[in-house]
UniProtKB/TrEMBL annotation:
DUF1254 domain span: 102-232
Protein name: DUF1254 domain-containing protein
Organism: Flavobacterium chungbukense
TM helices/strands, residue ranges: none
Residues in DUF1214 domain copies: 371-480
Length: 496
């Protein structure tokens, strides 16, 4: 009995020992974890690269390629502002609209076919264009009473993102609207209906007013165009200003070559980038990206070899990555019959690929609820659209593009511009009142370089004389079935 009691006491003692040991171990581990957490919290992590550290040319080139791609649209917009900074008066220079910063100039008819400043122009609207410099002043945008006429003002920031909703689809009242930069803290004058705040100081305003392709409508539109005006806040007096756009100064020149004017130059890109990024503050999640490239740019200022490596990388990226984005078939949401498009137009966020693809191929698109675009480089069999062939596209009865505004089908050459033709016709759609419908109620548009027969000539969309071309379907103020993707364009059929 005594031996059994001793054994029980020993077992109890050993168990207690083990429990104490385990407890001590847990306490020790807990203390270690707490100590590690405290140490990490106490340690100050760097907010960006150490600019005193030597970097390699290969790394500089790598960083340069990435930055050149995602910042390409921003530098593009910055250089458009720079092109307008020395303009002193409203004028037309050949087909180009010229205006001092914080003002725009309006056309009085469709854009001239030789325009080469902005790819993919359209001949459905009367355009205006002007650059914003909101660091200099807020601006007032006048909206006249357009009556039943479709209108929309495209207003975008440095990232080509829309920051103001002005258009027939928004039911805006006629009157005065204010555009202000991110840091403006002034008092809003009496009579201003609404203030739209941009996240950047640089931007662009482009009014678009629908015009029927008739002499009668060309005359009818002139009076309302006179009140489509923008000016610095200091000129605001609460009274609607008017400008007779038909009589502004006309200057010679302004016509470019075959391609869009060069707005992004790899040789100067990294000199301009710090200025651009100072205006476009980083979006959430972009802070590290900004600091990384700015550190490399700073290092390149002290090392010509690094600078040259960055320029060479930009040249390579322009050739290998940016230039192919001119082809619509290279990107976008793929739709039936080889059409493509995007659903986040003018609202890119950090979708850098689509933002740059659109900026390269057809910069300054509207938001999808304002305009939904459909792009086409191919026929129904996947062959490249080319002037050596004839094509047709047929909208079944009741299946014309569903819009509250208007629709049009435009043809561009390989550089996404008009190529002059004898009919002076570059698009067909709502504005064309003489198109003939088929006996079954469908509508066929004929796309070819040679004339059609007399019966179908009003339905003929002339192709370029020689080479590849693209089609571009616009749906202004699209109905819900277009916005949600239930309606897409019919096939482009090659005619044997």
């Amino acid at each position: 009995m005594e031996k059994k009691l001793i054994c029980v006491i020993l077992i109890a003692a050993l168990t207690a020992c083990n429990q104490n040991k385990n407890s001590d171990t847990k306490a020790s581990n807990s203390k270690g974890i707490d100590s590690l957490a405290t140490s990490q919290a106490a340690r100050e992590l760097p907010t960006g690269p150490d600019t005193n550290v030597k970097i390699t040319q290969e790394y500089a080139a790598l960083a340069a390629k990435d930055a050149y791609f995602w910042a390409w649209p921003l530098v593009n917009m910055y250089n458009r502002r720079m092109a307008f900074k020395d303009v002193k008066e409203l004028a037309l220079s050949g087909p180009l609209l010229m205006a001092p910063l914080n003002q725009f100039t309006m056309l009085t008819d469709y854009v001239i076919p030789t325009e080469r400043a902005i790819a993919c122009p359209n001949q459905d609207v009367v355009y205006g264009i002007g650059c914003l410099a909101l660091d200099q002043s807020p601006v007032v945008v006048q909206v006249p009473d357009f009556g039943k006429r479709f209108w929309v003002y495209q207003i975008v920031d440095l990232r080509t993102e829309s920051f103001a909703k002005l258009g027939k689809m928004y039911d805006n009242k006629p009157g005065f609207y204010l555009l202000a930069g991110p840091d403006w803290k002034g008092e809003v004058p009496k009579g201003i209906i609404k203030v739209f705040r941009s996240s950047t100081n640089t931007g662009l305003v482009g009014p678009r007013v629908f015009l029927d392709d008739t002499k009668e409508d060309r005359k009818a539109i002139q009076e309302v165009l006179k009140s489509v005006v923008m000016y610095p806040l200091s000129d605001y007096d609460g009274k609607m200003k008017t400008i007779d756009w038909a009589n502004i100064k006309k200057l010679p020149g302004g016509e470019g070559g075959k391609e869009e004017a060069v707005w992004v130059n790899p040789q100067t890109f990294f000199d301009e980038l710090p200025i651009v990024l100072a205006d476009a503050k980083p979006l959430p999640g972009e802070e590290a990206k900004y600091k990384q490239i700015l550190a490399v740019v700073e290092a390149a200022k002290k090392d010509p070899k690094l600078k040259q490596a960055m320029i060479d990388a930009a040249v390579e990226t322009e050739r290998q990555v940016i230039k192919p984005l001119m082809e619509f078939r290279s990107w976008g949401i793929q739709l039936p019959f080889h059409w493509s498009g995007v659903t986040n137009g003018a609202s890119w966020g950090t979708d850098y690929f689509t933002r740059t693809a659109v900026a390269k191929s057809n910069i300054l698109v509207n938001a999808p609820n304002e305009t939904r675009y459909f792009y086409q480089d191919l026929d129904s069999e996947g062959g490249r659209l080319n002037s050596s062939n004839k094509y047709k596209i047929t909208f079944a009865k009741g299946q014309l593009p569903p819009v509250n505004g208007f629709w049009s089908l435009t043809l561009y050459n390989e550089h996404h511009f008009f190529e002059i033709n004898k009919l002076n016709r570059y698009s067909l759609g709502t504005k064309n009142k003489t198109m003939a419908y088929n006996p079954d109620g469908s509508l066929t548009i004929y796309i070819q370089s040679v004339p059609t027969d007399a019966k179908t000539q009003n339905n003929w969309l002339p192709a370029v004389e020689k080479g590849d071309f693209s089609l571009y379907l616009r749906t202004y103020w699209p109905k819900e079935e277009v916005v949600n993707g239930k309606w897409t364009p019919p096939a482009v059929i090659k005619v044997e």
